[in-house]
Each structure stands twice: as structure tokens, then as C-alpha cells.
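Customer escalation, tier 2.

The customer says the design service returned an amino acid string that "doesn't look like it belongs to this structure." They asked us to rerun it and document both sides in this ticket. The original C-alpha cells are below, unchanged.
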């Protein structure tokens, strides 16, 4: 009979353990699932990887403060909705709440880690804060976290990129481009008026280059702003790549540690099985020798029984012969 292992319950239990306890407990559950021939559960549990300290801290947090976890999930839903609707005022209001809540929860997670006797590594609050920010943007990861089954940190994000605006949402207003006021047309009277002062006589006539100066100024400012936005976008992209590489490095290190733990556990199990096999072989040899000895004793006992039967038959025959040869009546002496 195939016994189905509750993968969800086991996953919730495993990610509540300290990272140092994770691998041994996971391997024990995998071995149990294999013994019970639940191959799907064994495969699913075998894919789980030991959590980083920050991921463990986030999972401790949702267990200790489920009310604040619900606040974070609710805030994420509101932020995503405001982003889709391009509601700038609402986004600004929610952003203030986001910064305060994430800072509070990251500090609480660090305290929970210390309370469990684990040394808080430098940067734990920042790493945990990045996970919480990722949960705000990633709806599925937020649900897993609220259900106490977050098995991996969400992919690092900057803001809410990837979320498309809702149909009908108004785009942000285009920047207002100012145009220089047209130069006043000179009237015939003004053109024919005599020069009344030396200052007026020395004033140069506005050239086409001077008339275009405000336009160039606006264009240059727009070009600078565009270049600034492009630099900011490149910087944000570089930071995302860096954060993604750091996360991949952490995952690779965790996977390497898991593989090393699994190798040690497998080798220890193999050594224990070899020792058990040697002991069983010794016991088998002793049992076979005892069985041979018992068989020989049984044969000897059967031989003794047959000899005793023959001796008893001979004794009975002698007794019967003696009874026949005995006188039938008493003998009287004179």
C-alpha cells in the first residue's frame, strides 16, 4: 500500500527549522517517503534547498507575527493596484507606509533570529528587507509566505516593473514644452522713427540665432533630463543584475552546502549499512552452523531412539519367553 506523505505540512515544518537542522531533517523525510513508496513526495522534498539566514528570518516572522504578515500582503495588493492604475498620489502615500512597515518587520525578524540562538550575520536586516520588498511585488510569493511555505526568496525587483497598467489607466501627463514668445512686429511708424538716443542707436538688431536661444535652452534641458533618466535606468538595471547575481551566488552556495551535507549523510548511511550487512552475515553464518549442529543432533537422537526401540522390543521378548518357561504352580518341599 502506498502511503502519501503530506508534502505541504512537511515543507512548512522544514522551513521553520534552523538552517543547520534543515538538511538532515529533509533527508530523513525523503528516506521515509521512499520507504513508503511515495516517489512523488520523495522527489518534491528532495528538491527543497536549505534556506539562507534571511529567508529563514522571513519565515520566522510570518509564524511569530501573522497579523503584521497580513498587513504586508494587503499593502502589496494595494501597491500593485495603484501601480496598474497609475495613481501617483496613492503610490506616494503607500510608499511611506511601505518603508515604515518593511523597516519594522526586518528589525523584528532580526530579533527573532537572535532569540532562537542564531548569530545574526551582518546585513541580515537589509537582506530580509529585500525579501519583504520582493514579496510586495510578487503576488504568488506573498501567498506562499503567508501560508508559511516560502521556499525561495523572490527575484529581486526595482519597484513594480513587469506589471502592465490596467486598461483605461491614464498615462502620466507629458512635460510641458515652453516656446519663446514671438518677437513683436515692428510697425511702419517704429521703423521710420528717428533715433532718439545713443543707446537706441547702438542696440543691435535681433538675429535669427538670438531668437532661437530659448528653444535651444529648452532642448538642451530636455536632453539633459533624458540623459539623466537613461543613466538612472542603466544604474537600476546594473543594480538588478548585481542583486540577481548575488542571489544566484547565495543559492549556489546553499546548494553546494546541501550537496556536501547530502554526500556526508549518504556516505554515513552507506557505512552504517555495510556494517549492518557484515553483522547480518556473521549472524547468518552462526545461525547456519547452529542449524547444522542441530541437524546432526537430531540425526543422533533418531538413531538413539531406534536403538532404544530395538532394546525395548528385545527386553519384551525376553520377558515373554521367561514367563512361558516358568512353572505353572507352586512347588511343595517335604
Amino acid at each position: 500500500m502506498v502511503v502519501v506523505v503530506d508534502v505541504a505540512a512537511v515543507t512548512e515544518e522544514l522551513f521553520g527549522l534552523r538552517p543547520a537542522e534543515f538538511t538532515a531533517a529533509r533527508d530523513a523525510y525523503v528516506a521515509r517517503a521512499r520507504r513508503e513508496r511515495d516517489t512523488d513526495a520523495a522527489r518534491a522534498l528532495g528538491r527543497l534547498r536549505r534556506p539562507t539566514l534571511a529567508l529563514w528570518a522571513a519565515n520566522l516572522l510570518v509564524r511569530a507575527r501573522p497579523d503584521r504578515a497580513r498587513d504586508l500582503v494587503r499593502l502589496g495588493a494595494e501597491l500593485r493596484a495603484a501601480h496598474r492604475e497609475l495613481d501617483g498620489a496613492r503610490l506616494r502615500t503607500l510608499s511611506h507606509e511601505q518603508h515604515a512597515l518593511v523597516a519594522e518587520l526586518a528589525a523584528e525578524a532580526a530579533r527573532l533570529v537572535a532569540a532562537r540562538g542564531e548569530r545574526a550575520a551582518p546585513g541580515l536586516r537589509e537582506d530580509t528587507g529585500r525579501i519583504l520588498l520582493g514579496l510586495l511585488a510578487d503576488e504568488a510569493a506573498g501567498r506562499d509566505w503567508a501560508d508559511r511555505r516560502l521556499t525561495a526568496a523572490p527575484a529581486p525587483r526595482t519597484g513594480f516593473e513587469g506589471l502592465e497598467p490596467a486598461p483605461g489607466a491614464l498615462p502620466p501627463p507629458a512635460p510641458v514644452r515652453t516656446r519663446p514668445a514671438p518677437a513683436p512686429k515692428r510697425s511702419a511708424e517704429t521703423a521710420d522713427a528717428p533715433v532718439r538716443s545713443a543707446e537706441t542707436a547702438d542696440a543691435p538688431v535681433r538675429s535669427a540665432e538670438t531668437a532661437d536661444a530659448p528653444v535651444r535652452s529648452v532642448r538642451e534641458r530636455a536632453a539633459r533630463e533624458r540623459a539623466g533618466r537613461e543613466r538612472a535606468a542603466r544604474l537600476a538595471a546594473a543594480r538588478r543584475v548585481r542583486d540577481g547575481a548575488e542571489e544566484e551566488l547565495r543559492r549556489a552556495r546553499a546548494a553546494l552546502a546541501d550537496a556536501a551535507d547530502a554526500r556526508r549523510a549518504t556516505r554515513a548511511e552507506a557505512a552504517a549499512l555495510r556494517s549492518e550487512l557484515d553483522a547480518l552475515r556473521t549472524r547468518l553464518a552462526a545461525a547456519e552452523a547452529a542449524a547444522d549442529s542441530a541437524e546432526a543432533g537430531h540425526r543422533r537422537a533418531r538413531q538413539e531412539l531406534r536403538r532404544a526401540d530395538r532394546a525395548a522390543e528385545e527386553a519384551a521378548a525376553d520377558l515373554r519367553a521367561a514367563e512361558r518357561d516358568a512353572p505353572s504352580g507352586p512347588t511343595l518341599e517335604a
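Tier 2 assessment: The sequence is consistent with the input. Residues 145 and 295 are 67 Å apart (CA to CA). The chain has twelve helices and no strands. Sent an explanation to the customer and offered a walkthrough call.
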